[in-house]
Protein 1
Amino acid sequence: MSNVFMLAISAILINNFVLSRFLGLCPYIGVSKKLDSALGMGMAVIFVMTMASTITWIIQNYLLTPFNIEYLQTIAFILTIASLVQFVEMVIQKMVPTLYKALGVFLPLITTNCAVLGVSIININESLSFIESILHGFFAGIGFTLVLVIMAGLRERLEWADLPESMRGLPIAFILAGCMALAFLGFSGFNI
Amino acid sequence: MSLIKEMTKGFVKENPVFVMALGLCPTLAVSTSIENAIGMGFASTFVLLCSNILIALLKDFIPAKVRIPCFIVVIASFVTIVDMLMNAYVPELHKNLGIFIPLIVVNCMILGRAEAFASKNPVLKSVFDGLGMGIGFTLALVLVAFFRELLGAGQLLGIQIMPESYEPVLLAILAPGAFLTLGLLMGALNLFKKKDTTE
Amino acid sequence: MSYYLKLGFILLLIAAVASGVLAFVNGFTKPIIEENRRQAEIEARQEVLPSAVDFQKADSDFVFYTGYDAEGEVVGYTFLAVETGYSGPIQTMVGVGPDLKIIKIKIVEQSETPGLGANCIRSEFTEQFSDLDGEKLYLDKDSGDIVTLTGATITSRAIVDSLREAIRLLKNNVEQLNSEEVS
């Protein structure tokens, strides 16, 4: 049980996917303007990352490695993720059309979210077991959502700030991210 | 637009990193040294160029409904080729860039150009577009790496620039420094562009 | 229906061609990559046990190589110590003498924080290990002799602990092999 706890703390705080590993930045900057779309995007990403971790693990260990075609990893993984996202898109469109509208073009863009492909590859590189990979994908998604939601909350308030024009939009978003990364740096070195 | 203009638009006006905010993950992750930045820039440009060419060639053959998966297969193939070639011929750089080499496949810049340009334009134009975007991307990476390596390690391209007594600003090499550097550079660039248009 | 079949077929065709091309490139790059890796390992082994001219892989569960000089005398052993540091696994190539005292170490694989843990590859850190008894290897923070890297306790401790554990395993295996030889 403590192993799961360590995995969670590591994926969410110590090695946060956005602020430490630099994965998932495009949606982090792109969708963090409003709190509810950030939350919706986060949920979708958690689901995709967990499912992707599961399926890609199976593909790697039952298809790629046994047949010695590990070099097809990139293609196999990214096609899996693309299909998964397509599937999630259809489900959201049917079940929560308002969310579908709010996320707009960013929903298919989950395919290009480096965090999803990233966690799949990291699971393999660190030789995680099947259960560990699924959990890692899940917690990594939570870490991503956490950071995304915090950022959205901050940026909503930033709308009212009096900023020099050249800093509005992207520049201040990155400075903000830098401050958040600084805060999260404090988690490093946790040895539970 | 003339071919040369197709290329140069990617340098500043439509710079993938500073203007379109594409390819952010590698920009922040590999800009710890100029050497890594150049390596990543070249690898990404190579993939972008090859995929632009192939997709422009195949655009009439690929049906619109399955175009995204087809683009992905093409891009992923070139990324895998680059990965294998780098592992064989420049293993040090390959190790330094690590997971971000396969992640070139999800560099929104490449899929973005395939969708927005190469699938709708002739091959030659796509070549220049790809080159321009790739060079713009590399320039952006090198610019961020310039500051991070100089301030964070006192070096440029591994050569000690700052005097011995210089206490490196470790933060520049770490994650927060990456974000802050990029944010400040973007702000500076915006200031530049504003001055340009008002004059 | 046939429309979807056509779509699927084209996708499959592209994927098949892609796989073919990749198999081809893999064919000629894989041996080079393997060779690079082998070469790097040989060089590392030579570096940590400079007096050896020949290395033989030992027949045991714990992987190590026995180094021989020109006269066929055992000059020491080399092995890889692996432990997860701060950001990932740290691999250290270690060369010990016949008395199992450390001759030299070399960090061959690490992805620690640049400027902090990554400084473990510097000679100022690795030099400390030479001439020390592996079984009594501890960080100064744990009442030992090894000076911890500034701001990189986890990295330092991982390396030290991995070495101590590996040398213990080596000792067991060498003793076992020696007793087998005698009997």
Note: The two ends of chain B are 25 Å apart (CA to CA).
Protein 2
Amino acid sequence: MDKQKPEYLRPALIAGVIAGLLSGLPIISAGNCVCCLWIVGGAAMATKLLAKNTSGILTSGDGAIVGALTGIVAAVVDTIVKIPLQPYNMALARRIFEKVSEFGTEMPAGLDGLLDGSSGFLSPGLFLLGLFVSAAVYAIMGVLGGIIGVSIFGRKKPQTSPPAAPLPPLPGPGDAP
Amino acid sequence: MSRSGISRTVIAIYLLTVAGTAIWLSAIFLAPVLAGRGSAGAARLIYDAFSPICHQVPGRCFTFHGHPLAVCGRCLGIYTGFAAGLVLYPFVRGFSKLELPSARVFLLLTLPMAVDGTAGLLGIWPSPILVRFVTGAVWGTVLPFFFLTGLADLFLARRRKVARTLENIRTNNVE
């Protein structure tokens, strides 16, 4: 069965935007703490969308491509969404660390500086560095999610129609009803 | 493509992945070492680099040289499991065939981590760091079998396409 060339961009954009939004919003973004759940899950969903729109069987290479694209889109969306939410996220992180330290756990060295420094203005250089690192990490996680997605969603059984049953003979004019 | 062609590609990707994993794990342990030696700025860069993918809550991280690692116990388990999977890969799969693990195997190995994570989130049980590490490691062990297969398949498909294009050009030139 000839396989049409898969269209990677559309599923990656759809799944990447959703994964990026989930990764950027406060509290919900904690899902990424479970091995980039939103990114891996988003890439797997992108594979499902790709499988739906592609005839034939997807290869793991297809999953890798769509997963990487999903990760990059998610990183861009995540970074943009986090810009206005940065002060709120840092305040939330500080509250979490203070809560944890009530149980006697020390904050890592330099964390105070990190939280104070990050709640203010972010220089363009640091912004681009953060975007680059996020894109690289999310792309790798996306590749993984895409390949896992192929394993779950991408394998279609070849459609073999059962042999047609012979049609019953049509009743003739002399046959009783 | 010949089996030797497949093997060469898989081996190359395997070695690159081993190198990348070694660097990744080293960075996780380097952050607390730098923090302990007073290089807070350098340590912060590494902690920052891992922050998009890990909550880094100190109470959930193993410590090294008196400071938390750059990732939590579960993430460390996943990356350690990934490294273990890389060690197992040549013996379990070899380098001459490309085959994804079944979805069933993946879901089975995800189950311990999912149960532990969900139970911890719902407050059913406290989920100690060691349990997080072990459940993460179980899941991480299967990941190289997806990662290497997918990347190798991608590169081999590209090489086949280039080879077909060159063959077409050669055929057209002969005609």
Note: Chain A has one domain: 9-154.
